[in-house]
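I would like you to help me understand the sequence and structure tokens below and explain how sequence relates to structure.
___
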Amino acid sequence: MMNTRELIRKDLPFERASIMEIGALNRPFVTKSETDVIYVDHADTEALRKKYAVGHGLDTSEIVHVDAVWGQNSLADCLGGRKVDYVIASHVIEHVPDLVTWLRELSSILNENGEIRLVVPDKRYTFDYTRRPTELPEVIEAHVRRARRPQPWNILDHILNVRAVDGHAAWSGPLALDQIPKLHTFQQAVSLAESAIRTDEYHDVHCWVFTPESFSRLMATIVEYDLIDLECHEFRDTQEETIEFTVFLRRTNDRAAAVASWIRMADASSSDLYESAEAIELERMRHDVESLRHEVASAHRVAGNARAELDAMKRSHSWRVTEPLRRFVSLLRSARGARTTH
């Protein structure tokens, strides 16, 4: 079976194709020595080298030369009106602030019969493990706002919920939540959200969270509402021991056929997203119940120790000797109580 790189490069007519690759960084799927390729990113080459200089484990000197910066301008503007046969974007779609506009712009620069090839992280095997899959209202809000930067709620959801997930362990079944620590603090989340509100600083996070099924059902709905004109041309589910799935998209005027193509992708997906979400919720509930059980057991132990101490005290010589005094004190309290009622 082909790996992701082989699949993305499959059947590309290098001798005559025009290709745009987004977010290639230091590992492009296609090189300039092979064909006519345009590298596009959200920042220029020097800015990317500075951004990835520390803590990312890559050789920044190998980052490709960015030909066009896709920032505040539309993609058509930054390409100068040029169109291409193929768009390649690996682990990019989850970062874009406005999903609908991003897909529309990709569609707009395709030649006839052009194709978009996406590699998308599957949340079930990444640090997004416990995050809720993206739903339509969130996508529509970002589109209505024409968001060009991640919104504060994007940042909060990401920073508050990403965890140190072992992708290989996730393939073995639901992970115990107490075994996958959070990667950031509450204070960090609030600080970055405040920064997003008060400044123009760009905080790069996963704005959107997908499984193959949640992605395809979301796409079917977006197409049904006539927000985009793209169909699922080819799909490969997340392969065992990997963290990503691949989708090839093509432009179409047949909305019903496009919706049907996304439903077929959903039906072909390996597992139901609701079962996955339910497994996570059940594991959380199991953890809570287990913690409560330990607390109850601890309370029983404390009560048992207290009863044992009281019984021992009652059996002691001092308890028997002071019995008349305790009886006198009890009678005195009763007498005082009687006087206060008259």
Remarks:
- The longest strand covers residues 110-121.
- The CA atoms of residues 261 and 287 lie 40 Å apart.
- The beta strands are 18-22, 36-41, 68-69, 84-90, 110-121, 230-236, 244-251.
- The longest helix spans residues 273-315.
